[in-house]
Design a protein that fits this description.
Number of strands: 15
Largest sheet: 13 strands, mixed
Number of helices: 10
Radius of gyration: 21 Å
Structural class: alpha/beta
Distance between the termini: 70 Å
Helix content: 25-40%
């Protein structure tokens, strides 16, 4: 009997060591402690719990990905413009169609791409924000580029957004290669330690880069909507921060809106190694209702609105292998499933939101908003490129 117990103990230890090695390979060991500390709050909605799913798809939209020819890049955009509107037959709990957030790489600027995407925005299918890949940059150069491109995207294409009261231009941001705030260990693919401050000063309203797991740039802060600020002389300042709604907005800070990051034990490999649910949507990770419970379980929320579940997904949607997952039959089955769930459960509501709208909703929740999702979509920021149906109606919500 003793020999059997020893053998079982050794087998269990070997199994645990194996699982830990697999997690370390995906850099999950870096966030294991915060993940465990979140375990008390990380749970799916209970039966009968009111749920408002705020679903945002933040796309690292790169038509030139893979160093393709201009013709291929142009064709990728044309296919989106042609086929994405077919999703218009689906509508959320507010009667709105799926809405996409195109984070366009400004270092690969092509006017015809942005003109085409602006057409989709005017038809009510999404909004355009800022994406950037850079390397060995400086704060000065970065600031000048962001200011220039911000004005160009507004004046040439009618994109981005403005603050409701001041009219100041604003944009959302995703960092290329996940290297926000010079967060790669070797310092490549960015170069700017005080990037959060540069973004804030040039009109960035929020960053949507995280999560990056299994990449090495993943922050210790997970499943959060939070404020971070630069720490002089130190990269990766967004590794920590203050949760939105837990106190006054820290001076000099930038809001970061993260997507879900949880271990999926239901689909564990060999029954031992959990899969990583990181909110990525691509050919091998299509939109599917099976994933929804993990997204909700992450509970990316602002405390004042526990019924609002912020689910920010990410994709590299311009490339062909992602098309079906985002606007093909695979995507259609997902949207059909959402409608079916809402019809069967009167306490489940879903709302297609853009990155700007998700920011507005987070700030509304932070301010103690008691009203509906629909009436807070334009809480602080108004889109420059507004859907035709919304023009002339005015803002539904006002900051209080």
């Amino acid at each position: 009997m003793v020999i059997v117990l020893v053998a079982l103990g050794l087998l269990a230890a070997a199994g645990i060591a194996f699982v830990l090695r697999q997690l370390r390979r995906r850099h999950f060991d870096r966030i294991l402690v915060p993940y465990l500390l979140q375990s008390a709050k990380r749970r799916p909605p209970r039966p009968g719990e009111e749920v408002h799913l705020l679903l945002c798809l933040a796309d690292h939209y790169e038509p030139k990905a893979g160093r393709v020819t201009p013709e291929v890049a142009r064709g990728r955009v044309a296919r989106w413009v042609r086929e994405y509107p077919r999703l218009g037959r689906f509508h959320d709990s507010d009667g709105r169609p799926p809405r996409h957030s195109f984070f366009y790489p400004i270092e690969e600027y092509e006017p015809e791409h942005l003109d085409a995407l602006a057409g989709l925005c005017r038809d009510g299918f999404g909004e355009v924000e800022v994406h950037l890949h850079h390397d060995r940059d400086t704060a000065g150069q970065l600031g000048r580029l962001l200011e220039h491109m911000k004005v160009l995207l507004v004046e040439r294409h009618g994109l981005l957004s403005r603050h409701r009261e001041t009219g100041e231009l604003a944009y959302g941001f995703i960092h290329g290669n996940w290297a926000l705030c010079n967060s790669r260990p070797e310092g490549r693919l960015c170069g700017v330690d005080n990037e959060l401050e540069v973004l804030r000063q040039t009109g960035c309203y929020a960053d949507f880069t995280m999560p990056s797991a299994p990449h090495v740039t993943q922050t210790r802060k997970i499943n959060s909507i939070y404020y971070a600020w630069d720490h002089p002389g130190r990269p990766k300042s967004h590794d920590t921060g203050m949760d939105a709604g837990t106190g006054p907005v820290p001076p000099g800070s930038l809001l970061l809106i993260q997507g879900p990051l949880v271990l999926d034990w239901r689909h564990a490999k060999w029954g031992l190694v959990p899969r990583l649910e990181n909110g990525c949507v691509q050919g091998s990770q299509p939109l599917h209702l099976d994933r929804l419970e993990n997204w909700l379980r992450a509970r990316v929320q602002v405390a004042a609105r526990p019924d609002w579940f912020f689910v920010k997904l990410h994709a590299h949607g311009a490339i062909e292998s992602s098309h079906d997952a985002l606007f093909g039959e695979s995507a259609a089955r997902f949207h059909e499933g959402l409608a079916r769930r809402a019809a069967e459960d009167p306490r489940f509501h879903y709302h297609y939101v853009t990155a700007r709208e998700m920011y507005n909703l987070a700030r509304a929740a932070e301010a103690g908003w008691k009203g509906s999702v629909a009436d807070a979509r334009d809480f602080l920021l108004l889109a420059n490129c507004r859907p035709q149906a919304a023009r002339g109606q005015g803002a539904a919500a006002a900051a209080s």
